[in-house]
Amino acid sequence: MKITIIGAGPGDPDLITVKGLKLIEGADVVLFTDSLVSEELIQRAKPEAEVLKTAGMHLQEMVDLMVNRVKEGKEVVRVHTGDPAVYGATMEQMGLLKKEGVNVEIIPGVSSVFASAAVLGAELTIPDLTQTVILTRAEGRTPVPEKEKLKDLAKHHCTVALFLSATLSKKVVNEFLDAGWSLDTPVAVVYKATWPDQKMLRTTLENLDEDMRKNGMRKQAMILAGWALDEQIHDKDFRSKLYDKTFTHGFRKGVKA
Question: What pTM was computed for the model?
């Protein structure tokens, strides 16, 4: 017995893998997070499929439903927003399903962090500037591990992507400043990346909280911070060795400058 968890991508119904779409189209039962997954995508399910919205369900309710349908011999898919590997709340589902003898296959999806970078036209890793991206969230009602406080992670001065932190923008600013970041550090915020009502904001650490408030970005917003988000980055001399004509690698011999 098996169910499939599918990453639906960030919002645009076209940003799903071919494999994920085929599984939705062929499923007998489709469960989806209706508060975050595009209904346009779910409409690709076959007409006779049982389509169930899960935003109002608790964990055991969802799991019991999936187990019952699988035991009836039905093909069941569970559609998650973005990529299930990042803040996907999948592990607790998988644990309960496995106790019932149900295996789980996961189909990856486009994460909102990479969709946000794409709509901004940003590369999050820039040679000689930053080669690391930290995916995290600010501490709110749900705590983070003691060794993963934002101010400590930010001390690496690399690119930082903040999920689930739109209501904590003032705290975010203070944590970055405590880590030694400058007030003029570039920050970009994308609300509902790739959705029709998507909004983008370019600002600085100093103005982040005020600008997010002015733009009503208090939920479903990705915050990207660091000098890789500098709007003038293309005018600066940061270049990958991959395409440097003087650099030799396995597919090309470099030439003298």
Answer: 0.89
pLDDT at 64: 97
- Per-residue model confidence as pLDDT tens digits over 207-220: 999 999 999 999 99
Which of 191, 231, 187 is CA-nearest to residue 206? Answer: 187
Q: What is the pLDDT of residues 104-115, one digit of tens each?
A: 999 999 999 999
d(CA 169, CA 164): 10
**Token pair belonging to 206:** 């100093």
Mean pLDDT of the chain: 93
195 contacts 12 by C-beta, under 8 angstroms: yes
Q: Which domains does the chain have, with CATH numbers?
A: 2-107 (3.40.1010.10), 112-235 (3.30.950.10)
Backbone angles phi and psi of 161, in degrees to 5? -110, 125
DSSP string, 134-181: EEEE--SSS---GGG-HHHHGGG-SEEEEES-GGGHHHHHHHHHHTT-
CA atoms within 13 A on the CB side of 54: 26
pLDDT-based confidence at residue 256 (cuts at 50, 70, 90): low
Q: If you write DSSP's letter for every residue of 4-21 in order, what string do you get?
A: EEEE-BSS-TT-S-HHHH
How many residues are recorded in the chain? 257
118: CB partners within 8 A, 6+ apart: 193
